[in-house]
């Protein structure tokens, strides 16, 4: 198999966080879509990695255990993907437990705020809290299911986004702590979706400087839904900071055609593939 023909995906979510498919169902869909290398990167938990690994073995898909850690940098929420982590590393498990407790407290507080705004906040929060990693996306789906928002985006814009009636800020761990946690768990830290942070180019460069200083090694240069201008901008940053390029979909659910599972293992020129850092399982894709 040549690198160009291969499909890989190093950024996906299962229902262990805010995806809708169980890990085994996610892997079955990946097999159907001819994905040859898959990472499961749930928000702040690696709880689905054992099931995903077993399913990948059954489908002869290369598996990379991963996570997407939520953190703060200068008061902003930033996401860092950890690839090829050891999900059993005790300090990593402790880090995730801390963040998941913050998540539970936040969703409960957001439920209270939504109730004060006249919405069924208690029920929405209870549904979200059934997930091992409760997220705002769970609240958004509850709003959509009740006809209280027309779409996930509308739910965030009207109720759940920063500055909206249901919003509660969370005191996530700092960026450097999250990166160091991934590195300590034998993982490779990749800055997720750099084009989505609403900061100036100068501030983004400062973020990358600190990310790299903390041990960060990669940047998502090819992500589903990324336009050509963003792709060029991020590729330029990857070269400038000598960060390896990662590829993924940020898949959460089937039925979002603009974010399909699996992408061609093709990177812009003069960018080192992150696959080169992921050991033997990723060798065919370098
Ligand atoms: Mn998500
Ligand atoms: Mn993210
Ligand atoms: Mn994600």
Q: Calculate the terminal CA-CA distance, rounded to whole Å.
A: 11 Å
Q: Quick one: how many beta strands?
A: 8
Mean pLDDT: 95
Low-confidence stretches: none
**Overall geometric form:** globular
Count of DSSP H/I helices: 9
Structural class, judged by helices and strands? Answer: alpha/beta
The tally of structural domains comes to 2
- Beta percentage is 15-25%
CATH homologous superfamily identity of the largest domain: Metal-dependent hydrolases
Helix proportion: 25-40%
CATH architecture of the largest domain: Alpha-Beta Barrel
Please describe the biggest sheet, giving its number of strands, its sense, and whether it closes into a barrel. Answer: 8 strands, mixed
Ligand inventory reads: manganese (II) ion
What does this structure look like?
The chain has 286 residues and is α/β, with parallel strands linked by helices. It folds into 2 domains: 7-95 and 172-285, TIM Barrel (Alpha-Beta Barrel), CATH 3.20.20; 103-160, no CATH class. The protein is built from 9 helices and 8 strands. The protein has helices at 23-32, 49-59, 90-116, 121-129, 136-145, 152-160, 175-184, 201-213, 228-240; strands at residues 7-9, 35-40, 62-73, 76-83, 188-191, 218-223, 244-248, 263-264. An 8-stranded mixed β-sheet has the order 7-6-5-4-3-2-1-8. Helix 1 (23-32) packs parallel to helix 2, helix 4 packs across helix 5 and helix 5 (136-145) packs across helix 6 (152-160). The longest helix has 27 residues, at 90-116. The protein is globular, with a radius of gyration of 18 Å. The mean pLDDT is 95. The structure holds manganese (II) ion (3 copies). One manganese (II) ion binds at residues 11, 13, 68, 250.
């Amino acid at each position: 198999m040549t690198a160009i023909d291969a499909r890989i995906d190093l950024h996906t979510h299962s229902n262990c966080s805010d995806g809708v498919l169980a890990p085994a169902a996610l892997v079955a869909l990946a097999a159907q879509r001819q994905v040859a290398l898959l990472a499961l990167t749930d928000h702040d938990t690696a709880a689905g990695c054992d099931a995903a690994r077993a399913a990948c073995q059954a489908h002869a898909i290369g598996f990379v255990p991963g996570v997407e850690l939520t953190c703060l940098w200068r008061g902003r929420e930033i996401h860092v993907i950890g690839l090829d982590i050891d999900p059993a590393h005790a300090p990593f498990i402790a880090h995730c437990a801390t963040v998941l407790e913050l998540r539970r407290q936040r969703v409960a507080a957001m439920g209270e705020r939504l109730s004060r705004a006249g919405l069924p906040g208690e029920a929405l929060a209870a549904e979200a809290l059934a997930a091992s990693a409760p997220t705002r996306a769970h609240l958004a789906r509850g709003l959509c299911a009740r006809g209280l928002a027309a779409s996930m985006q509308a739910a965030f814009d009207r109720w759940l986004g920063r500055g909206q009636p249901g919003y509660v800020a969370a005191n996530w761990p700092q960026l450097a702590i999250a990166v160091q946690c991934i590195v300590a768990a034998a993982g490779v830290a990749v800055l997720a979706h750099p084009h989505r942070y609403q900061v100036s180019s100068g501030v983004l460069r400062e973020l990358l400087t600190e990310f790299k200083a903390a041990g960060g090694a990669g940047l998502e240069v090819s992500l589903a839904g990324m336009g050509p201008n963003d792709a060029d901008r991020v590729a330029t940053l990857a070269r400038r900071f000598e960060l390896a390029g990662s590829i993924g979909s940020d898949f959460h659910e089937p039925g979002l055609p603009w974010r399909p599972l699996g992408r061609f293992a093709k990177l812009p020129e003069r960018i080192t593939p992150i696959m080169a850092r992921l050991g033997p399982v990723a060798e065919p894709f370098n």
